[in-house]
Amino acid sequence: MSAADVAEGFSISGLLDAGSQTASRFPVREIPLSDIREHPGNVAYSMDEEGIARLAESIRRDGLTDLPLVRRLQGGGFQMISGHRRMAAFRLLSQQSPSYSRIPCRIASDVSDEQALVLLHTANFFTRSLTVTERAAATKALGIQVEQMRAADPSLAGMRTEDVKARIVEEMTGRKVSGKTIKREEALADKVAGLIPEWRDAADSGGLSAKAVDALAGSDEATQRSAFEKWSESPRSKAATTELVASMTASKPAADKRLASAEKALSRFVASLPRNPSAADSEAISRIAELARRAGDAVRGFTEAHGARQNPSDSNRSE
């Protein structure tokens, strides 16, 4: 079975009777807002009040140009699959006029919980500009479904999850996205999730490059906050932000590997110092102390000489 075969089973034509007409498969009906439940999977997406208000004004001015998709529930009523923001906009408008207390929707029947979740996430993938976190949440949700399919069908074991996700998105939206892109976006979202809230917001608003996210993700909280304070002092382009973050999160040069190894060995000895050190141990420690003194003198002498060459006029400025 190919990735395309798997994806077809998730497409609208694969979920429902492909031989039927759209009108009969997805009848349109005006449904009271009170009869439509939100899908719990939609919590992955932003429902910011400002954006909903703008959408409501657009609907009031131009009408509803794209109908939401709902499914019938066995216990009665409907569940929103694609159109949560439009439903929220209608609820806002209904406070001003009762004519918005009902919303026209396309109704899908016989859609399972699994299929509804896949439809929700793939429908959202290209309908609007998603944040890094939202896009990754969508494809990660698809991954759960793919793994469930693998458990039921051993023939899928050799198929890469990200490739199946990519084909599902393509089947559902008609737009191509590669498995590598999906894998990269999910990895980036994981790094964004580990940033301080201020940097997470900046990343989700498109203000951080992947390189900047990598640099911040490898830094501690104090370094991230220091970098954010500097960054927030004045607006910067994404490229300039990347340069700033790189300079403020750059790690200190590592010590010579031989010195690092010697330090670790001596630390282990001190941590488990014997009760009665031998004369040989005492002599070795004395030699190490003498070598450390000589090495310290040499490094300080080099640093001082190097500094003098870099700043030949320093002595003049002090006069």
Strand order of the largest sheet: 1-5-3-4-2
Identify low-pLDDT runs.
Answer: 1-23, 308-319
SSE ordering: HHHEEHEEHEHHHHHHHHHHH
Strand coverage percent? 5-15%
User: Helix tally?
Assistant: 16
C-alpha end-to-end distance = 83 Å
Helix content: 55-70%
Mean pLDDT: 80
What's the total number of strands?
5
Radius of gyration from CA coordinates: 30 Å
Shape category:
elongated
Please outline the major beta sheet: 5 strands, mixed
Query: What structural category characterises the helix and strand content?
Result: alpha/beta
In brief:
With 319 residues, the chain is an alpha/beta fold.
Description:
The protein has helices at 3-8, 12-15, 22-25, 49-62, 84-94, 113-127, 132-152, 161-173, 179-193, 197-204, 210-217, 221-231, 238-249, 257-271, 279-310, 314-317, and strands at residues 28-32, 36-37, 69-72, 78-82, 102-108. The protein is an alpha/beta fold and 319 residues long. A hairpin with a 5-residue loop joins strand 3 (69-72) and strand 4. The radius of gyration is 30 Å and the shape is elongated.
